[in-house]
Design goal:
Elements: H1 8-31, H2 36-51, H3 64-79, H4 93-98, H5 100-117, H6 123-129, H7 135-144, H8 149-175, H9 195-214, H10 220-235, H11 244-259, H12 267-299, H13 303-310, H14 315-325, H15 329-360
Helix pairs in contact: 1-2, 1-11, 2-11, 3-9, 3-10, 3-11, 3-14, 5-6, 5-12, 5-15, 6-7, 6-8, 7-8, 8-12, 9-10, 11-14, 12-13, 13-15, 14-15
Length: about 350
């Protein structure tokens, strides 16, 4: 992992938006919202980037290398949760992973119908905006197919933002208490983590990132550190504890980077896009919840874990939700990586079929 030279203005603006996100996270934590450091940071940075004058940060974008490092830390955190108990779920994994081959095209077709009928999108924009994963691949392929790239990008980012907002809030209403703040750590070690352990966590993240990219792992920024930490944990080479403040910091960075996506979006377009995304995300969560209940009945795996595994958010974001809820984060991450792989394969195949049908008509 390389650390390029960053202009002083960029460093100052990154620190500024992280401070804004931190203020929002602290307020959300005080109020007692679910996933406070992620959602509070998302809302605070989103409001500032959308409504404050842009002249002071014109041309600035949140430093994705910084975000990538924290995604790597999330991978390490998940890897330390991989225990021999996970092997007990192995007989059920072919069923739960195999069901994704049905979930992905079903969610994709449902979304496409929503964007075509309710949004009035053209076929290419509706098709690539509707994918339940593979954000960057959807944007790249959609641009090549002539989709409205601005609308497509907004809808894809709103999918992730709304899933990580709606799911914790919904679970809080369901359970009657705020979830996702420190629930996942309540049973873990609470002793202070020394500098040596923090250094090991950082080194594992950086080395895992390099390995993941070198061997071209899917979602390498997460899966590389995850697999390296899991190997080290299972072999006893490392015994890394997870301080709550580190997970809260990861939530803060991810939330702030998501909130920055609202920068420069027209108010009318934003309102329309959010309305469509609410319908789209609700439909996908309903489909995912149905799969979770069916698979829970068939396998006995907790329905909550399966719901998070089938919620169509980003890999890093949903892994953070799983970590915070102690909802088998390794299991959840495996399903999300598989969902993205299936989506990336399904996209060109489905596009080819739709083009052939269009020509036949």
């Amino acid at each position: 992992m390389t650390f390029p030279q960053i202009a002083p203005r960029t460093l100052v603006l990154t620190a500024f938006f992280l401070a804004i996100g931190g203020s929002g996270g602290a307020l959300a934590s005080f109020v007692g919202t679910p996933m406070p450091w992620m959602l509070g940071a998302l809302v605070a940075s989103g409001l500032v980037s959308r409504f404050a004058p842009e002249r002071h940060w014109d041309g600035y974008g949140f430093q994705m290398g910084f975000r990538t490092f924290f995604v790597g830390l999330i991978g390490v955190m998940i890897g330390t949760q991989v225990t021999p108990d996970l092997a007990a779920l192995a007989p059920d994994l072919p069923l739960t992973l195999g069901a994704l081959f049905v979930f992905v095209p079903l969610a994709h077709f449902t979304n496409m119908t929503i964007f075509r009928r309710l949004g009035g999108f053209d076929r290419a924009t509706a098709f690539y905006a509707a994918t339940p994963g593979g954000l960057m691949e959807s944007i790249f392929m959609g641009e090549s197919a002539g989709a409205d790239i601005r609308t497509l990008t907004i809808q894809q980012f709103l999918r992730i933002i709304l899933v990580v907002t709606i799911l914790p809030l919904g679970l809080s209403l369901w359970t009657g208490q705020a979830v996702g703040s420190s629930a996942g750590l309540s049973n873990g070690p609470q002793d202070p983590v020394d500098l040596g352990s923090l250094a090991l966590i950082a080194v594992t993240a950086i080395l895992g990132l390099q390995i993941g990219r070198r061997v071209r792992l899917p979602a390498a920024q997460l899966t590389g550190p995850l697999l390296l930490a899991a190997l080290a944990t299972l072999t006893g080479a490392l015994d890394l504890h997870l301080p709550f403040w580190l997970i809260a910091t990861a939530q803060l960075v991810i939330g702030t980077s998501l909130g920055m996506r609202f920068q420069g979006i027209d108010a009318a377009l934003l309102r329309r896009s959010i309305a469509l995304s609410l319908v789209s995300v609700s439909a996908m969560l309903l489909i995912g919840g149905t799969f979770a209940l069916i698979l829970h009945t068939a396998t006995g795996i907790e329905a909550l874990h399966l719901l998070i595994a089938y919620a169509p958010g980003g890999v890093a974001e949903m892994s953070l939700v799983a970590l915070s809820l102690a909802a088998s984060p390794a299991l959840v991450s495996l399903h999300h990586v598989t969902r993205i792989l299936i989506t990336v394969v399904e996209m060109p195949l489905a596009a080819r079929v739709l083009r052939l049908r269009a020509e036949d008509l």
